[in-house]
Amino acid sequence: MKKLIIAVTCATCALLSAANAPAQNYPSKTVRIIVPYVPGGTSDILSRLLSPKLAEVFGQTVIVDNRPGANGNIGADLVAKSAPDGHTMLLADLGALSISPSVYKLPFDPVKDFAPVTMVTYSPHLLVVHPSVPVKTVKELVALGKTGKLNFGVSGMGGAPHLAGVAFEAQTGVKWTYIPYKGGADAIIGLASGQVDAIFNGMLATYPHVKSGRLKLIAVSSAKRVAAIPDVPTVAEAGLKDFETGSWQGVVAAAGTPKEVVARLNSEISRILNTPEMKGNLAKLGTDVYTMTPEQLGNWLKSEIDKWAKVVKAANVKLE
After folding, report:
1. Prior bond to 39 cis, omega within 30?
2. Where are the beta strands (DSSP E) in the chain?
3. Residue 20 confidence (pLDDT) above 70
């Protein structure tokens, strides 16, 4: 009997050791953070802030790999089809990812093909115009927009900035001509160069260009004013009821990634983001750290997919 107890104990220890092996051995090689947009956008900025911190902890190289196209879906598909070992992850606007099933025929399932890791940040969209556009307020922009002479730049047709423009159009009666770009950075360049007249875009990537004078800030899309720019009104203050949009940045890995690896990624990313240094720097840029457990992020994705499906259907959004 004593031998049997010892044997069972040893077998149990072996099973526990095997279960913990993925986390103990992770990472064993270079880690890639796939950013599915061009360099310079919100996801890219966040990835480049996180990657050196993760490299310190992991003792492995952590690289940022930009794979733009199809409103982020090319990079997302790459991660969905990657080896489920945690060495390839996606850092992207998960709001855009949750919209995609309603407007694209996807080669992957945003729920079934990913292992949620954590939300990273939330930042509101800024409504900005080219300095030459003769408006200073939302009401003035609406009056000008009703003439049908304004071009509206979007970082990916069917993405969150596009639907922010659609929602604005629906509530105000403006007539935008939508001009698509591969990512937020390209949309900012298009606006600064005068190719388009207005955009909604994430505050983290956009506000530095407001401070430099390249763009004119009209309003912020959060539910309440942002502490970093308290004098800037919200879009809702101009009479657009419940108008709230923004950039929800998060991390996912390929489905099947061991839970222990997901848990370690969640723990390390959350710890780094919640350091006073990182939180303070991001707050100055108008971006709030917003971490979640993998389970919470999974539930959030499902609810957002359902929500945006209803919005797209109601607005009859169609991509050419």
Report:
1. no
2. 31-35, 62-66, 88-93, 114-129, 150-155, 176-181, 198-202, 216-220, 246-254, 288-289
3. no
pLDDT of 22? 61
| Count of Cβ atoms closer than 10 Å to residue 307 Cβ | 13
36-87 residue pLDDT tens: 999 988 899 999 999 999 999 999 999 999 999 888 999 999 999 999 999 9
5-14, 143-152, 160-169, 235-244: lowest mean pLDDT where? 5-14
Query: Alpha helices, DSSP H only, in 113-183?
Result: 138-145, 160-172
Look at residues 317, 293, 309, 305 and name the one whose alpha carbon lies nearest to residue 115. 293
Asked if domains 2-123+247-315 and 124-238 share a fold, the reply is yes
pLDDT category at 287 given cuts 50, 70, 90 is confident
How crowded is residue 310: how many other Cβ atoms within 10 Å of its Cβ? Answer: 10
What's the number of CA atoms in the CB half-sphere (13 Å) around residue 23?
A: 16
Token pair, residue 223, equals 């539910």
Distance CA 180, CA 169 (A): 16
- For residues 187 and 239, what is the distance between their CA atoms, to the nearest angstrom? 26
Break the chain into its structural domains and give their ranges.
Answer: 2-123+247-315, 124-238
Q: Which of 263, 247, 257, 297 lies closest to 80 in space, CA to CA?
A: 257
Alpha-carbon torsion (177, 320, 221, 313), positive or negative:
positive
Let me know if domain 124-238 sits in CATH 3.30.1360.40.
no
Distance CA 38, CA 90 (A): 14
Give 30's contacts (C-beta < 8 A, 6+ positions apart). 60, 61, 62, 63, 87
**Is the bond into 27 cis (omega within 30 degrees of 0)?**
yes
Query: What is the number of residues in the chain?
Result: 320
CATH class of the 2-123+247-315 domain in this structure:
alpha beta
pLDDT at 258 over 90: yes
Least confident of 13-17, 153-157, 297-301: 13-17
φ, ψ of residue 57 to 5 degrees: the values are -70, -45
